[in-house]
Amino acid sequence: MPELPEVESLARFLADHLAGRAVDRVYPVAVHALKTYDPPVTALEGGACEGVTRYGKFLDCQVGGLHLVLHLARAGWVRWSDKLPAVPPRPGKGPLALRVRLAGADGAGFDVTEAGSQKHLAVYVVRDPREVPGVARLGPDPLSADFTPEAFRALLEGERRQIKGVLRDQSVLAGIGNAYSDEILHAARMSPFKLAAKLSEEEVERLYAVIGATLQEAVERSRGLALKDLKAEKKSGLRVHGRKGEPCPVCGDTIREVSFSDSALQYCPTCQTGGKPLADRRLSRLLK
Q1: 8 & 128 share domain
Q2: Based on the domain organization, do 83 and 131 belong to the same domain?
Q3: In whole angstroms, how far apart are CA 100 and each of 103, 107, 112, 164, 266?
Q4: Structure confidence by residue, pLDDT tens digits, 191-215
Q5: Domain with 76 in it: what CATH number?
Q6: What are the FPG-type domain coordinates in residue numbering (predicted)?
Q7: What is the pLDDT of residue 281?
Q8: Which strands make up the sheet holding 66-71, listed edge to edge?
Q9: Which residues are bridge partners to 48 per DSSP?
């Protein structure tokens, strides 16, 4: 799933490539991805691209006074083309969900795609990005100036959930998902099951510092890369997430996994849980 660093890189790439250009045609190939109908997506046609912004994991392309807001969900992506096919795309079973062709003889533009059978990609055309429910309920951005140690401490006060779930809650912090929450907690040497309300002052300060450093480092690693290379860059930069069974790059212990109904987390027992493996609820049920 694209998270804050990848969406930030997408926003920067598109901002550079769309600046000053007008939209010629918009093709809504997968109608199920459209979450708004007024204005229609065709209202973007003829409008000039005025900028690209990120809200958490939402991508906002500002076109002619309107906003094309994308949430890429788990398997969505944006693919740039210096020359799109001349033939308009047909609705079908492929990954293409939306095509945006720019005005000009070069035929440049971008496709929004979604792989897999589960379709959760969301496309909105709105007059104000806050009309998108997911944007309206976002918490502070971890890379913004407003995200201070005091603000973070206030977010955790009285929070009785496990810290892993708190970091992933978009209404608490915008942009952190499953992968980077694993990376952040590993760097902070903290158990994902630790209750947020029970963090010591030193642990809160350490976690705050690691959040900013981990995300900023990931953003910088992706700077200047082509869109097609961003996914590989993310995977290569992860130290524990998705690396079950591999040695921890810090201590050499074996990275473990806890599975849930639709996701899994990875962690290092030595670095994060005092050497004790966490209970894998899915495995425990199978053994009963």
Answers
A1: yes
A2: yes
A3: 10, 10, 8, 37, 37
A4: 999 999 999 999 999 999 999 999 9
A5: 3.20.190.10
A6: 239-273
A7: 64
A8: 49-55, 58-63, 66-71, 122-126
A9: 22
Q: Is 2 helix (H, G, I), strand (E, B) or coil?
A: coil
Please state the separation of Cα 93 from the chain's center in Å. 25
Are residue 129 and residue 171 in the same domain, yes or no? no
Q: Is residue 64 part of a domain?
A: yes
Q: For the chain, give the number of residues.
A: 288
Tens of pLDDT, residues 70-118: 999 999 999 999 999 999 998 877 899 999 999 998 999 999 999 988 8
Beta bridge partners of 52: 61
241 and 192 in contact (C-beta within 8 Å)?
no
Q: How many domains does the chain have?
A: 2
Stated as kind and residue range, the H or E segment containing 24 is: strand 23-28
Tell me the residue range of the domain where 105 lies. 4-136
d(CA 137, CA 139): 7
pTM: 0.92
Note whether residue 107 is domain-resident: yes
Quote the DSSP letter at residue 22.
Answer: B
Average pLDDT for the chain: 93
Which residues have CB under 8 Å from 239's CB, separation 6+?
183, 186, 187, 248, 249, 250
| Residue 267 backbone dihedrals phi, psi, to 5 degrees | -160, 165
- The answer to whether residue 118 is domain-embedded is yes
Return the biggest CA–CA distance within the chain: 65
Which residues are CB-neighbours of 50 under 8 A, at least 6 positions away? Answer: 62, 63, 64
**Rg from Cα positions in the chain:** 20
* Same domain, yes or no: 11 and 121: yes
